[in-house]
Design goal:
The protein is α/β, with parallel strands linked by helices and 298 residues long. The chain has three domains: 2-49, Beta Barrel (OB fold (Dihydrolipoamide Acetyltransferase, E2P)), CATH 2.40.50; 55-220, Rossmann fold (3-Layer(aba) Sandwich), CATH 3.40.50; 234-293, Probable gtpase engc, domain 3 (Ribonucleotide Reductase Protein R1, domain 1). Helix content is 29%, strand content 23%. The protein has helices at 86-98, 114-122, 124-128, 145-149, 154-158, 173-180, 184-195, 242-248, 265-271, 279-293, and strands spanning 2-4, 7-11, 17-22, 35-40, 43-49, 55-59, 64-69, 73-79, 102-108, 132-135, 162-166, 205-209, 217-220. The chain has an eleven-stranded mixed sheet, with helices on both faces.
């Protein structure tokens, strides 16, 4: 249900919650995991982690950061202000697609007029490749009926699924969580009390149920400013970008990098008058390919 340092909060099938720690020195359990545990004095001990359906994570040259496991979808929340990074958005989408996890993109702060219009236009390439893009106006004073009315059809898109909310700092993730889970603040206080000192409460990942049946879950995660993809092979990159994947199947060479090779269908598509690959997206592809092709510095 939540993870902080070497401790995790687990929930039993009967709804009981308690703190557990790993048997070894390293905690490898993440939010969304199914675990086997044993009572240990006033806490519990994680004995094993059940096989995962998927694991969403990012990886740079120095470390790997896991977000959550056993997800049905990822909700990537960006905002009209502060301006979001198309590169970071693309990286999150690539990481999700590499794990077979569907994604929703939500643009927050639709009440900002011109700023929202510019941001919505910036998302045009994602709508063109059939990504789901929603417009939201989540208010900071969350929890009221008015807040929920601004969420449009989002609750229906979450129903019956486990969804990770992912996005940069300042996008409005906390406001969204509070609007959908009014008791989230109470749960945060309970966890802080259980830890004794409130350690790690600002950086933890937590799962919240949206219904009494515990069939719909929303997972909050810390904001990020960087999203490394060192676990992605550069030659697999185009297959994880829908706008490049389709034309790439027509390339003359099976190991085409889509940069300068003769007979490259991606380059041909880029040069077409009605190209389905935007300049923004192709530039992101080139930057990522170069980044993932560089030898490690360690």
């Amino acid at each position: 249900m939540a993870s902080f340092g070497r401790h995790v909060l687990i929930e039993t099938p009967l709804g009981q919650r308690l703190l557990c720690h790993p048997r070894g020195k390293k905690n490898e359990a993440v939010v969304g995991d199914r675990v086997r545990w044993l009572p240990s004095q006033d806490e519990g001990t994680i004995e094993s982690i059940e096989p995962r359906r998927n694991l969403l994570y990012r990886q740079d040259e120095l470390r790997t950061k896991s977000f959550a496991a056993n997800l049905d979808q990822v909700l990537i929340l960006v905002a009209a202000e502060p301006e979001f990074s198309a590169s970071q958005l693309s990286r999150a989408l690539i990481a999700a697609r590499a794990q077979g996890i569907s994604a929703l993109i939500a643009l927050n702060k639709k009440d900002l007029g011109d700023s929202f219009t510019r941001a919505w236009h910036k998302l045009a390439p994602y709508r063109a490749m059939n990504e789901t893009v929603l417009a939201l106006a989540v208010q900071p004073a969350a929890g009221s009926a008015a807040d929920r009315s601004d969420l449009a059809d989002l609750p229906e898109r979450l129903r019956g699924k486990t969804t990770l909310v992912l996005g940069p700092s300042g996008a409005g993730k906390s406001s969204l969580i509070n609007a959908l889970v009014p008791e989230a603040g109470v749960l945060t206080a309970q966890i802080s009390q259980a830890l004794g000192s409130g350690r790690h409460t600002t950086t933890r990942t937590s799962l919240y149920w949206l219904d009494p049946q515990r069939s719909t879950a929303l997972i909050d995660s810390p904001g990020f400013q960087e999203f490394g993809l060192q676990h992605i092979e550069p030659m697999a990159l185009a297959s994880l970008m829908p706008d490049l994947k389709a034309p790439a199947q027509g390339c003359r060479f099976h190991n085409c990098t889509h940069r300068q090779e003769p007979g490259c269908a991606v380059i041909a598509e880029r040069q077409a008058s009605n190209s389905t690959i935007s300049e923004q997206r192709y530039r992101i592809y080139l930057e990522l390919f170069d980044e993932l092709s560089r030898p490690p510095r360690y």
